[in-house]
TrEMBL record:
Domain Cytosol aminopeptidase: 356-363
Originating organism: Streptomyces himalayensis subsp. aureolus
GO MF assignments: manganese ion binding; metalloaminopeptidase activity
Binding site for Mn(2+) 1: D281, D358, E360
GO biological process: proteolysis
PROSITE patterns: CYTOSOL_AP
Reactions this protein catalyses: Release of an N-terminal amino acid, Xaa-|-Yaa-, in which Xaa is preferably Leu, but may be other amino acids including Pro although not Arg or Lys, and Yaa may be Pro. Amino acid amides and methyl esters are also readily hydrolyzed, but rates on arylamides are exceedingly low; Release of an N-terminal amino acid, preferentially leucine, but not glutamic or aspartic acids
Gene3D superfamilies: Leucine Aminopeptidase, subunit E, domain 1, Zn peptidases
Organismal lineage: Bacteria, Bacillati, Actinomycetota, Actinomycetes, Kitasatosporales
Name this protein carries in UniProt: Probable cytosol aminopeptidase
Length: 514
């Protein structure tokens, strides 16, 4: 993990490989952002014009490197684009860049400095919130998953010779300021757990089956004082978890249900997080077509997010009880696999006719939702890479939010946006429920093709306990980035929804969610 420090040192005298400054997109060209005044002065106030000559515009995520001015101990200045100069008309006296803007800029700079030992970030820092945003962005942007690559000396990757940026110093953030220190401590805890979720998503499925995932969760729980309970295939059979068992029936690696319980003595509220943990999804007997299998190690991203959020809540000592449920199974075709047309008796007692074994996530979640409901939490939030339909609706960077309570859906959406995660509220139209009627069972696991993401949400709603507030996050789009990296987001597992879940826990602890 990249080390992070606060520093009031002058940019010119700091020993580092690079000084990172912000540059915004002004009406007449690039504009040097606050925080870089000393660097700009060393260029005789002409840093913006030099950057413009080099082709920089200040566009978001744009990175421009240039030699540091004479007298600087760092050899390079890295200018990172912040996008448009902020309109401060509604900001009062604060000419502020949004936290997410700073987060993305810091991430882009950290990625560009892979292979460097130390970089000083002289980005706009108006308050502790800005400090936390830059810290998060830098720590997330410096992420790399090299566990399966041949490495040389000093842990450097043998192929590209670059290790992640080793150390970040935030200039202008006072080390003795309590709020700034707290912001960095929070950013460190959240990003370390988010990056652990990324590691899990990126781990090949031959090394991360349900049993292995459960072992990772158990070890982390013990380290951070979280109670853990793991139900193996025998306990699942005894308990009547037909959904989880049905999905895992075709695999040589049996399923697991993991319960993680973080409690605080002063907690007044209880949240339950439920994560879909399909460690590999072949589609089962309803086999996925060629070209759709290669990234299906990511189908446990929801469980990874829940796991990371519970551990982060424990590390932060939040005054709220948080229970995480990881519904883990591998969906494979074999002679013992569940077939289309089979009927499963779920943990809740309801029966489900399986029309498509590739609609398996909702089956494992249904059992976990019913079990979580027994504890009567104040709210349940499930997270899942559930439907391709949600990707078609919202694209690859935005997750959908559904709920059985409109006010709660709004609160979750607003919380996600506050945390820097793109989301969008989606409806649960009651007319789509009829499409899941079955002449054989209580409900089918498939309904109308159009609005498939909403149909899946309606299916899950059937298994939430009466009177319990519930939200469903379909992260199928943003959970795994198959394109090039951007901002603080790497290629591969992203850790989608972790920050939203942590922020929900924080808001609940503070009494902001009712």
């Amino acid at each position: 993990m990249t080390a992070l420090t606060l520093s009031t040192a002058a940019a010119s005298g700091l020993r580092a490989d690079a000084i990172v400054v912000g540059v915004a997109k002004g009406a007449k060209g690039p504009v040097v952002a606050p925080g870089a005044e000393a660097v700009d002065k060393a260029y005789d106030g002409k840093l913006a014009s030099v950057l413009e000559t080099l082709g920089a515009s200040g566009g978001e995520g744009e990175v421009t490197k240039l030699p540091a001015p004479s007298g600087f101990k760092a050899p390079v200045v890295v200018a990172v684009g912040l996008g448009a100069v902020p309109d401060d008309s509604d900001q009062g006296e604060k000419d502020a860049y949004a936290p997410e803007t700073l987060r993305r800029a810091a991430g882009a700079a950290a990625r560009a400095l892979a292979g460097s030992k130390k970089a000083a970030f002289a980005l706009p820092l108006e308050d502790a919130e800005d400090v936390g945003a830059v810290a998060e962005g830098a720590l997330l942007g410096a992420y790399a998953f090299d566990a399966y690559k041949e490495t040389g000396q000093n842990g450097k990757n043998a192929k590209n010779g670059k290790a992640p940026l080793a150390e970040v110093a935030l200039l202008g953030a006072k080390p003795r300021d309590k709020a700034c220190r707290a912001a960095v401590e929070r950013a460190t805890a959240v990003t370390e757990e988010l990056n652990r979720a990324r590691d899990l998503v990126n781990t090949p499925p031959n090394d991360l089956n349900p049993e292995a995932f459960a072992a990772v969760a158990t070890a982390a729980a013990k380290e951070h004082g979280i109670k853990v309970q793991v139900l193996d295939e025998k306990a699942l059979a005894k308990g009547g978890y037909g959904g989880i068992l049905g999905v895992g029936a075709g695999s040589a690696a049996p399923p697991r249900l993991v319960k993680l319980s973080y409690t605080h003595s002063k907690a007044k509220k209880h949240l339950a997080y439920v994560g879909k943990g399909i460690t590999y999804d072949s589609g089962g007997i309803s086999l996925k077509p060629a070209g759709h299998n290669e990234t299906m190690k990511c189908d446990m991203s929801g469980a990874a997010a829940v796991f990371a959020a519970v551990v982060a809540a424990a590390r932060l000592g939040l005054e709220v009880n948080v229970t995480g449920w990881l519904a883990l199974a591998e969906n494979m075709p074999s002679g013992s696999a569940t077939r289309p047309g089979d009927v499963l008796r779920m943990y809740s007692g309801k029966t489900v006719e399986v029309l498509n074994t590739d609609a398996e996530g909702r089956l494992v979640l249904a059992d976990a939702l019913a079990k979580a409901s027994e504890e009567k939490p104040d709210a349940i939030i499930d997270v899942a890479t559930l439907t391709g339909a949600m990707v078609l609706a919202l694209g690859n960077r935005t997750f959908g939010v559904m709920a059985n309570d409109d006010a709660f859906r709004t609160a979750v959406h607003e919380t996600a946006e506050e945390a820097g995660e793109a989301s969008w509220p989606m409806p649960l139209p009651s007319d789509l429920r009829k499409g899941m009627d079955s002449s054989t069972a209580d409900i089918a696991n498939m309904g109308e093709r159009m609005g498939g993401g909403l149909v899946a949400g309606l299916f899950l709603k059937e298994f939430v306990g009466e009177g319990i507030t519930w939200a469903h996050l379909d992260i199928a789009g943003p959970a795994f980035n198959e394109q090039g990296p951007f901002g603080y987001t790497p290629k591969g597992g992203t850790g989608s929804a972790v920050r939203t879940l942590v922020r929900l826990a924080e808001r609940t602890a503070a009494g902001d969610l009712g």
